[in-house]
Design brief:
Layout lengths: L9 H8 L9 E6 L5 H14 L3 E5 L6 H9 L9 H10 L13 H13 L5 E5 L7 H10 L5 E6 L12 E5 L4 H9 L7 H11 L3 H7 L9 H10 L3 H13 L5 H8 L28 H12 L7 H10 L3 E4 L2 E4 L2 H9 L3 H14 L4 H11 L5 H16 L3 H13 L4 H18 L2 H14 L3 H17 L3 H14 L5 H18 L2 H5 L1 H6 L22 H16 L7 H5 L12 H16 L3 H12 L12 H11 L2 H7 L9 H17 L3 H14 L6 H17 L3 H9 L18 H10 L3 H15 L5 H14 L5 H10 L3 H18 L2 H18 L2 H17 L12 H11 L4 H8 L3 H15 L12
Parallel strand pairs: 1-4, 1-5, 2-3, 3-4
Antiparallel strand pairs: 6-7
């Protein structure tokens, strides 16, 4: 495989790159399936070694002494400076001197001596040997011996098992590419297939790079693996080729006995029946040479193969060739292209006959029967369409999302009625969304629009399509899909209209776009009276059937929460929620309802309830992970509730493969966790990396999270000016929250940072705007955050506000934060002893949470209190020379970063010095530093 096609092998390339590094391996054997990219990896590793200044020697297969002569030829210009005992035999072997060459058996020793001697004069030599299974024993032994020296490393590749001579080599097996890397490799091709074909290629290639390239090519490349497998088929006995055709046409690992019966071969169970494979004329279908000749040859030869020998004998040549394996009676192809070669070997006419035989043999497996029947009988047919729809439902229950989508699309294509086709395509849209294939989802959605103008069908198709677009990082297109479906006309089913409003609200929450938010009332109004139900969601016992009204009441409440957060439309619903009993079975409607109520609970600042509801929505789910609609809300609620370990687990990017916007959202949450834990460098690094991939207008929620993470991390590092800049950017120029929920919840942290860098006046403006936005009845959490903000900014008069903030906050991190700053206030203004108790509580909570930075700050404040209670020098005279320098520069208005640059220290050190200055002098504000002189 060409070097340019090396995709998804960064870790493997890094492993190969560690050869010759101090403490690294000196040998590595790369293996993997055919077409997995072994040669490409060796090529890339050799190029990287050359760039690093290493000498690279290439060794290729060949007969006799040729492979070892290659190594001598590669270093021939270096031989002249070697000692005569090494130089002479090497030049003689190359015929570059008149001396008689040594005996061929001495060649390995000569090569070893020459390469080792040359390596001693360089920074190291990397010997790269591909196709090790084709090298002669002498060459393999020499490669092993070369690794005994400190300056020679050997990188080789080949098939398993590892040659005996290389038994001491470390082994690196190339696994199939992951879904995202496979898609990237396919999408890099010049010829871009349709979204459906792309999904099919990704499914069939099973992550094998060569299969992705060849399936994605217009024709089979000369010398490709498909051609090799076709050549391997040509030399097999006809019965073996026949059975391989049936195995390939089945499309799943089927029982060898079933395939043999379908093909008309005798099995241990008895002779073939007509229904199991032999046609009315007694002919058994088979495959040999392409076209009519194959049909004629195999119809006779396969049928005449009933010589009493068991069918397993006919499988044996294919097993020995490596084309298939037989495990527990099931037939598995050894490579995706081997199955493709077996299927392409037959004519289209013969393939249809094979599918017909397989359909007759699979009547007890409706999902596979439907696919075989559809492949055998072309054209519109409602019976086949119904069978395919049933197959799709089975695949869906089994979690086989590609198969479900493909079967549902086929069902639509075989539907005689456009209305039935549109309905079936709508389900295919949802299946493609669950497959996380945005391109296929949008392609199917477009087909629905070409088939119907029914408002209900278009709305039903818009919801999964818009969801897929939203989490693929295209929220504005997603919102346009929703509004387009709404404009077609009123939906007959109000629940469908409510669902449109719901997805639009979810998009508006993430984008923070005012136009999106302003469009929600119109969408919600289309749901009519059903948006305000007589029954409260959560009143009915879990596990019972729910009508549209219960779902619609929660839907309407969530949408209204996004429209007007200060209106608190979901509070009454949450007060009536009944959680299910542990282990209680839940219907899909229950899961959806609890997930939606969990989102409302999060917005209403009831994190523990949100966690319970969202966890209930996924409890007992075989996948054991929330859907990608629920996932970010659950992670957010876990962070707020103080369960950071579970938040870490659910923020794993591996859970959101194929969802770029979701990956960015989870990255922002992980950056926030790093910052809360005091892992400042990790938080800032992840924030910068995520901003590079973020469309701020498409995901303002993630942007706000990153700003908070960067602000907290900067503050922890002592860079208060930048910390304030980051946190202040969560609000507009007039102080209004850029995100109605996420910005407001950082107001106390902004106020605390403002005090540290002299921005109290600006911070008071922001606090006032946040209080306005919170409305007349803010949540208990929001009330506590505002009280803490105002207490910090109140200077000497904040005790009552501190006490209220401490009493009313039930979010563990924020409660500890309130105790921390109340303790600092007590130490400075009234009672060091009482301060120690309050600070100790804050420290314990921070320790339990894992907020190490905040816990250390609490410990330092306690220590300061102890010191202040004993006689010691204080005032300007107590300052060290560097503390005086820092204070003087800060009094001139320089930022921490500017001071750090002048004094050649870090910004964090500047912050530490200023904290000591404040403590020793009793100064509490930056602008007071000028009084020290």
């Amino acid at each position: 495989m060409p070097f340019a096609q090396l995709v998804g092998r960064d870790a493997e390339l890094a492993r190969a790159g560690r050869l010759l590094e101090p403490g690294g391996d000196l040998s590595l054997f790369v293996t993997g399936a055919r077409g997995s990219g072994k040669s490409a990896l060796l090529t890339a590793a050799a190029a990287a070694a050359r760039e690093a200044g290493r000498r690279v020697l290439l060794l290729r297969g060949g007969d006799g002494p040729w492979p070892l002569r290659q190594l001598l030829l590669a270093i021939r210009h270096d031989l002249a400076v070697l000692p005569p005992g090494i130089k002479g035999p090497a030049l003689a072997f190359l015929g570059l001197t008149p001396d008689a060459p040594p005996h061929a058996d001495d060649l390995p020793a000569v090569v070893h001596a020459a390469v080792t001697a040359v390596a001693a004069t360089t920074t190291g030599i990397l010997v790269v040997a591909d196709d090790a299974h084709e090298l002669p024993p002498a060459a393999l032994a020499t490669l092993s011996q070369l690794t005994a020296g400190p300056r020679v490393a050997v990188l080789t590749a080949g098939r398993m098992p590892v040659p005996e001579a290389l038994a001491g080599f470390a082994v690196l097996e190339l696994a199939p590419l992951g879904a995202e890397d496979a898609a990237r490799l396919l999408d890099d091709r010049d010829r871009l297939p349709s979204a459906r074909d792309r999904a099919t290629i990704l499914h069939r290639a099973e992550g094998n790079p060569a299969a992705l390239v060849e399936f994605g090519s217009a024709g089979s490349p000369a010398g490709g693996l498909l051609a090799e497998f076709t050549d391997a088929l040509a030399v097999l006995p006809t019965p073996a080729r026949t059975l391989l055709l049936y195995a390939a046409a089945a499309g799943f690992p089927a029982e060898a006995a079933l395939l043999s019966r379908a093909a008309g071969f005798p099995t241990e169970a008895g002779p073939p029946s007509e229904a199991a494979g032999a046609g009315p004329s007694g002919e058994a279908a088979g495959a040999g040479l392409p076209g009519e000749a194959a049909d004629a040859e195999l119809s006779g030869e396969a049928a005449g193969a009933g010589d009493g020998s068991p069918a397993a004998d006919h499988w044996l040549p294919a097993v020995e060739s490596g084309l298939i394996t037989r495990t527990d009676g099931l037939i598995f192809f050894g490579h995706p292209l081997a199955a493709e070669a077996a299927y392409r070997y037959a004519s289209a006419h013969l393939r249809r006959r094979v599918h017909r035989d397989l359909a007759a043999a699979l009547t007890d497996r409706p999902e596979h029967y439907a696919l075989q029947l559809a492949a055998a009988e072309p054209g519109p047919d409602e019976q086949i369409a119904t069978a395919l729809e049933t197959a799709a439902a089975i695949f869906r229950r089994q979690g086989l999302r590609y198969r479900a989508t493909a079967a549902m699309q086929q069902a639509a294509e075989r539907s005689p009625s456009p209305q039935a086709a549109a309905r079936r395509l709508t389900q295919a849209v949802a299946d493609a969304r669950d497959l996380r294939d945005t391109a296929w989802t949008t392609e199917l959605h477009a087909q629905v629009w070409r088939l119907t103008d029914d408002p209900d069908v278009l709305a039903a198709a818009a919801r999964p399509a818009a969801t897929a677009m939203h989490w693929a990082g295209r929220p504005h297109e997603a919102y346009a899909m929703v509004t387009a479906a709404h404009r077609v006309g009123p939906q007959a089913n109000p629940a469908v209209a409510a669902q449109l409003a719901l997805i639009a609200a979810q998009i508006a929450w993430v984008t923070g776009d005012e136009d999106h938010r302003r469009g929600l009332p119109t969408l919600l109004a289309a749901a009519g009276e059903h948006t305000t139900a007589e029954h409260t969601a959560g009143e009915r016992p879990a596990g019972t059937q729910h009508g549209g009204t219960a779902v619609d009441s929660a839907t309407a409440a969530y949408v209204r929460e996004v429209i007007d957060p200060a209106g608190h439309a979901g509070r009454e619903l949450l007060d009536a929620v009944v959680l299910p009993e542990p282990g209680q079975a839940l219907l899909p409607a229950d899961r959806q309802r609890f997930g939606l109520l969990g989102a409302i609970a999060y917005v209403e600042d009831r994190a523990p309830l949100a966690v319970a509801l969202l966890t209930a929505s996924v409890a007992g789910d075989p996948a054991a992970t929330p859907s990608f609609g629920t996932l970010p809300t659950l992670v957010s609620a876990l962070i707020d509730a103080g369960d950071w370990e579970r938040a870490d687990r659910f923020a794993d990017p591996g859970l959101v493969t194929g969802l770029p916007a979701m990956r960015i959202t989870l990255a922002a949450m992980r950056a926030q966790l790093h910052a809360l834990r005091g892992e400042s460098e990790a938080a800032l690094r992840l924030a910068r990396e995520t901003w590079e991939r973020l469309d701020i207008q498409g995901n303002r929620a993630a942007h706000i999270r990153l700003l908070r993470a960067a602000g907290l991390a900067s503050a922890d590092s002592g860079d208060q000016e930048n910390a304030y800049r980051y946190l202040r950017s969560m609000f507009d120029a007039d102080g209004r929250p850029l995100h109605p929920h996420l910005s407001s919840r950082a107001v106390a942290e902004l106020a605390i940072t403002a005090v540290r860098c002299g921005q109290q006046a600006d911070a008071r403006t922001v606090v006032a705007r946040v209080r306005d936005a919170a409305g007349a009845g803010p949540s208990g959490r929001m009330t506590a955050l505002l009280q803490l903000s105002e207490a910090v900014l109140a200077d000497n008069d904040g005790e009552a506000l501190f006490q209220q903030a401490v009493a009313e906050s039930d979010y563990p991190y924020e409660r500890a934060l309130a105790h921390l700053h109340y303790g600092v206030w007590l130490r400075r203004h009234r009672s060091p002893r009482e301060a120690r108790l309050v600070l100790a509580y804050a420290g314990r909570v921070f320790e339990v949470l894992g907020a190490r930075g905040a816990a250390e700050l609490a410990a330092r404040e306690i220590a300061v209190g102890v010191q202040s209670a004993t006689p010691q020098q204080s005032g300007p005279a107590a300052l060290t020379p560097q503390e005086r320098q820092v204070a003087a520069l800060a009094a001139q208005g320089l930022s921490n970063r500017a001071i750090a640059e002048q004094l050649f220290i870090s910004a964090r050190t500047v912050g530490t010095h200023l904290s000591r200055v404040y403590r020793k002098t009793g100064i509490s504000r930056r602008h007071q530093l000028g009084n020290l002189s």
